[in-house]
Amino acid sequence: MNVTKLEGKQFRKMVSVGAKRLDTNAEYVNSLNVFPVPDGDTGTNMNLSLASGVKSIDNTTSDHIDQLAAALSKGLLMGARGNSGVILSQLFRGFGKAIEGKETLTAKEFAAAFTNGVQTAYKAVMKPVEGTILTVARESAKAGEKQAKTTENIVEVMEAIVREAKKSLDRTPDLLPVLKEVGVVDSGGQGLLFIYEGFLEVLSGKISEVEVYQPSPQEMTEMVNAEHHRSVSNHIATEDIKYGYCTEIMVKIGEGETVKQEFDYDTFRNHLNEIGDSLLVVSDDEIVKVHVHTEQPGEVMNYGQEFGSLVKIKVDNMRLQHETILENEEAHADHTASAEKKPYGVIAVAAGEGVQSLFKSLGVNYVISGGQTMNPSTEDILKAIEAIHAEKVIILPNNKNIFMAADQAAEVSELPVVVVPSRTVSQGMSAMLAFNELNDLETNKKEMSAELENVVSGQITTAVRDTEIEGISIKKDDYMGIIDGKIKVSTTNRKEAVLDTLKKMISEDSEIVTILLGEGADMTEAEAIAAEISQDYPDVEVEIHEGQQPVYPYLLSVE
After folding, report:
1. pLDDT at residue 394 tops 80
2. What is the pLDDT of residue 340?
3. Who has greater pLDDT, 501 or 31?
4. Is 481 helix (H, G, I), strand (E, B) or coil?
C-alpha cells in the first residue's frame, strides 16, 4: 500500500488501533516486570495513559493532524501514570510539537516527528537508562528517518520503525543486565512496540473500518466518572440539561426470553446514540456494558433486552444531582473565598487507611490513594494541589514510579511546587520529621530530602513466578524480603522472611524498628516478631501499626 500523505482521519484511527493493541496486551506487558512481585503495572499505566489521550482525540472535531496530535499530547499529559506513562506522553508531546501548523504529513515530516518525540522524552528524564522504552523509541525513530530519505511512502517508514523497534527490544537485555538475568525484555519498550504495530496495521490497510479501540471496563469506569462529573457540575442552569437521566445497563448477550435480534456492536451503539449523549459502550462475546445520558431510560432498558437479559441497571436523575452540586459548590466557594490560603500544603501518595492516617498524623494535608499498581495520574496530582488551598506545595510520591508524574504536575501547576523524592512509605514518613513550616520551599526540600537517607525500607510480599536475581533463587509463592528496592530474602515461611529481612536491615546504629501490617498480615505473628527482635537487639525499640496496605503484608522501616 502506498501512502504519501498522512491525513488526520487516518492518524485518528492509528491512535485508536494502537491503543486497542496495547489494551489487549496490557497484562502481558505487566508480566515482564523484572521483580516477581504481584504489582507489575507498566502495561496498566501505559494503557490508562493512552486511553486518556484517545478520549481527548475523540472530543476533538478537527481533522487537521496537528490539532489531533495536540489533543493526544494534552490527554496523555493529564492522564500520564507511572514513569512509562509519562515517557509515553513526552514522546507524543514532542511528536505534536514537530508538526504544529500542518494539516497533513509527508514521509519525511512523519519520521522527523518521531525523532523530535524521542528528544523531548530524553530531556524529561533526569538520568536516562539505556535498555528501556527510551532506547526502543530512539533506535526505531532513527530507522524511520533513514527510510524516509529513500522513499515517500509513509507505510515503508512505519515498517522500518516497527522492524527496528522489534530488534531494539530484543537487544534490551544486553543493555540492562537485570533483564538478561531474569530472562525478559523491557516492559515499556514492549508496550511501545504494541502501539507502533497498531499504527502499522492501519497504514498498511490490515485493519477494517469497524475494528477500532474500545475502552476496557476499568477505563470505562474512570471515563464515566469523569464524564458524569463534568455533565452534572457544569455551570449551566438545571433546566438547560438536555438529557436528565444518567443510565447504565449491563446485558448478558443472547440470554433470556426477550431476545429479538443478534447483537451487532455498530447497530446497537448507533441506536443508543440517537436517544442520548455521553455514550460509552463496551462489549465482549458475553456482556455489553452501556453508559448514556438520556431522557428515556426505559427505552434504553427495553432496547437492551432485545439482545439479552439485564444483569445490572442504574439510573440517576442528573437534574437533582446538579442542583445539589451547585448548592455545595456555592457553599464551598463562600468558604474558600473567606478562608486564607495555608502557607504550606503537603501531599503524600499512599495506599491503606492506616498508612494514610499515619501520614496525616505527621502533618500531611492531603493523601492521594495510590502506590504500587495504583499510580496516580498527573491530573490526579494537579487536582490535589488545587484542593489543598495552599500558597506552596510539597509532594511526597513514596514510590519511584510516581516521580515523573509528580514532577510533571509540579511543572504544569501555577503554584510553587517541589517534589521530595521519597521512594517508599517509610522514607516519606521520615521526611515529614524534617518538615518546618517556617522554612522556605527549597530549604524544606533540601532538609526533607536529606532525611530520606536516615531510614532503611523493607517490604515483604509473595513471588508470582520462579526466577533468580543477584544469586537469590526465588520460587513462585515464596515470601520475599525487599530492602531498599533489592530482593535480599526468599523463603517459604512468612515469619522467617520478616525476621531475616529485619536482621539484614538493622545495624549497630539502629534505634527504631517500625512494622506496618498490611492486608493478610497477622497481629499475633507481628508481636512474636517484635518480641524476637527486642530480645536479639535490646537497644532497639519496636513499634507496630495497622497500615492496611495492599500487596505487601508487611512494610518495615529501621531508623
Report:
1. yes
2. 72
3. 501
4. strand
456, three cell numbers: 532503611
When divided into structural domains, the chain yields a total of 4
Angle between helices 133-148 and 107-124 (to 10 degrees): 160
- Chosen domain end from 322, 352, 373: 322
**3-state secondary structure at position 458:** strand
Cell readout for 271 is 441506536
Strand pairing report for 308-317 and 541-546: unpaired
Distance CA 253, CA 348 (A): 44
pLDDT at residue 213, as a whole number: 46
The model's pTM: 0.71
- Nearest 5°: phi and psi at 390? -130, 160
**Which domain covers residue 416, as residue numbers?**
340-454
3-state secondary structure of 239: helix
Q: For residues 186 and 166, what is the distance between their CA atoms, to the nearest angstrom?
A: 11
Distances (CA, A) of 161 to 86, 94, 167: 21, 17, 10
The tens digit of pLDDT for each residue in 404-454 reads: 999 999 999 999 999 999 999 999 999 999 999 999 999 999 999 999 999
Cell numbers placing 524:
499475633
Residues 81 and 196 in one domain: yes
CATH number of the domain residue 99 falls in: 1.25.40.340
